[in-house]
């Protein structure tokens, strides 16, 4: 089995290593020549036997769009492109329609696992035809976690479905992380009786209903820096949460937990939140509650 892999960053490079470990021949290309196997995309195409499979693992948006357009110039009819980045699902329709007249097949793959995927495997959600899924299954089996296929891989539906499922996955992830974070803040604030915040989270890792891999990662972070002294309270977002809310509004699906988690991230980016100033002023007006004045 042969595959081309474009984008050899943190995830892409680990994916290349996991694929090779499973006996799949990988030809990798990256703009960084220090990690690239070939000099350019024409060399990538030349190094792969036809019909080719090329996995694109680059940042979503203009970069992914550019790579797919460039690949269309060097690939042939019958070749298959898999977009494994965090593209918005609506982009998949555009890419599939662009490639169709050239006879180039397209699939989208939502990938979860981050930098731990090399060791643990990647959760995969794919969209495309059943024929293309079967064709690329050795690749999916190499990347997914060990164990039952259905617990680490799903053919969600046609093109676009994989990235849609990954979008919802990431929206749920936002909500779970926010709940853990709020629990941490409350425990940390109650130090008169809570003497071991890190130990409390660690004790939840087995047997409790809130145990998860995200909880394990939080414990790891707390053990390294229990008070998060070295971390600024600024949280970015990569888009999937916003897209999830857009879909929730479009389909009239209530998402109070996920929407609150995204808005909480926005608050983190304000050094002195104007809305919180307004809340403080209102509380002072109607209840005489004290306000903290600026120095």
Automatic annotation (TrEMBL):
Look up keyword Nucleotidyltransferase and say if it applies.
no
Alphabetized Pfam families for the sequence: 6PGD (PF00393), NAD_binding_2 (PF03446)
Is the keyword Oxidoreductase assigned to this protein? Answer: yes
Alphabetically, the GO molecular function entries are:
NADP binding; phosphogluconate dehydrogenase (decarboxylating) activity
Which residues, if any, are the signal sequence?
Answer: none
Origin, by domain of life? Bacteria
Gene Ontology BP term (one) = pentose-phosphate shunt
Which residues belong to any copy of the 6-phosphogluconate dehydrogenase C-terminal domain?
Answer: 162-290
**UniProt cross-references to InterPro entries, sorted A to Z:** 6-PGluconate_DH-like_C_sf (IPR008927), 6DGDH_YqeC (IPR004849), 6PGD_dom2 (IPR013328), 6PGDH_C (IPR006114), 6PGDH_NADP-bd (IPR006115), NAD(P)-bd_dom_sf (IPR036291), Pgluconate_DH (IPR006183)
> Keywords in UniProt for this one?
Gluconate utilization, Oxidoreductase
Read off the NCBIfam families from this record: gnd_rel, PRK09599.1
| Entry's family note | Belongs to the 6-phosphogluconate dehydrogenase family.
Protein name (record): 6-phosphogluconate dehydrogenase (Decarboxylating)
Q: What is the lineage of its organism?
A: Bacteria, Bacillati, Actinomycetota, Actinomycetes, Micrococcales
